[in-house]
Design goal:
This protein is mainly α. The protein has seven helices and three strands. It has helices spanning 9-30, 35-46, 52-59, 63-75, 97-101, 103-117, 123-145, and strands at 50-51, 79-83, 91-95. A three-stranded antiparallel β-sheet has the order 1-3-2.
């Protein structure tokens, strides 16, 4: 019996989130990484020299999770932590040569998933869905930072 398609935005977002996590778990495993490691490396590809706290804020991820992933990446020699020149209490994260070797593979992982999700979309549809999703993200942020936070 064919299941009737759900028309709830929440259901679809949740479904896509679960499938994305599964895809990223499988792809990260191929590189000897965990899903959280992929996100941190992807962030450092965009901007090296961030602190764990900055990564936590930018990615809206738990500080403890960032600390565990950072430790894992340091132990695998994908990143290195260096003291800040102006504030020795602050440690900044940088990709190692080994970490930089992963850049093309990490970019492909994220690019391929986006391509999979939008495989039969026109260019206009891709632009439209991205803009709508970004608006949904803004609405969710507003909910948690606005009056509805009670």
């Amino acid at each position: 019996m064919k299941e009737k398609r759900k028309k709830s935005v929440g259901f679809c977002v949740n479904f896509l989130g679960r499938k994305t996590r599964k895809y990223l778990e499988l792809e990260a495993e191929k590189l000897g990484l965990k899903t959280g490691d992929l996100f941190i490396l992807h962030r450092l590809i965009k901007e090296e020299g961030l602190s764990q706290n900055q990564i936590s804020c930018l990615m809206r991820m738990n500080k403890a999770h960032i600390a565990r992933s950072t430790s894992h990446l340091i132990s695998k020699n994908f990143i290195v932590s260096k003291s800040d020149k102006n504030d020795s209490r602050l440690h900044r994260l940088y990709l190692t040569d080994l970490g930089k070797e992963l850049i093309p593979q990490i970019k492909v992982i994220f690019k391929n998933w986006s391509a999979t999700l939008t495989s039969d979309f026109s260019k206009e549809e891709k632009t439209l869905i991205l803009n709508l999703l970004l608006r949904m993200c803004d609405n969710a942020k507003q909910y948690y930072h606005g009056e509805n936070n009670e």
